[in-house]
Amino acid sequence: MRALNFVDCAIRVDERGTWFNLLLDKPFIPVARQFVLQRKDRLYTAELKEFREKRSLDANSYYWRLCGDLARAINEKPEEIYLRHIKDIGNYSVLCVQEKALSGFEHKWASGHLGRFIETKESKIPGCVTVLAYYGSSDFDRREMSRLIDNIIQDCKAVGVETLPPDKLALLKEDWDAQGN
Predict the structure, then answer these.
(1) Cα–Cα distance between 151 and 156 in angstroms, integer?
(2) Which of 179 and 39 is assigned the larger pLDDT?
(3) Phi and psi dihedrals of 60, rounded to 5?
């Protein structure tokens, strides 16, 4: 089941219990109808979270092109530059993890995600460690991706790597908005 977006909601109570009604953002969503018609008589879970706009693949491609150019200019690996930028954005969750579970958590958190990594700090809770779990750019919304690109542009300009002129960069950002990213 994919995520469904909604624009309003309400609570209704009747003899069967409490209902949570959603006003979907589109008049007819086949996947919602299919779920209702095919669901089985069992317990389900729904996760509610605020909608976050996705960034465009063009933004990702542009970032990695500049990252490669910068890496060649300063003789560093693009992945190291990327991880430094991820840390600079500061998009992370703070968690308390038992020391014995730390390596398993780190493996699951970072597995398959170049930009996801953790940092640890001492915890005041015995047997635990405070974890900063950083999100990678695949988790970023448009605003965060824009900051990531601004960071790579600043670094590129500092060492003379050519970037898009401000007017073309503004057009690229407008295009992200027009695409709904």
Answers:
(1) 9
(2) 39
(3) -65, -45
Angle at 100 between CA 94 and CA 102, to 5 degrees: 35
pLDDT surpasses 70 at 73: yes
> For residue 168, how many C-alpha atoms fall within 13 Å in the half-sphere facing its CB?
7
Q: Can you list the pairs that 116-119 forms with residues at least 24 positions away whose Cβ atoms lie under 8 Å? A: 117/83, 117/86
Tell me which residue has tokens 């300063």: 74
Distance CA 158, CA 109 (A): 33
CA 42 to chain centre: 31
Q: What whole-number distance in Å separates Cα of residue 23 and Cα of residue 11?
A: 12
Burial group, residue 64, by CB count within 10 angstroms (0-12, 13-18, 19+): middle
Strand partners, 122: 129
Over residues 137-170, the pLDDT tens digits come to 888 887 888 899 899 999 999 999 998 887 777 7
Handedness of CA 90, 96, 99, 100 (dihedral sign): negative
pTM value is 0.64
> Angle at CA 129, nearest 5°, toward 128 and 130?
130
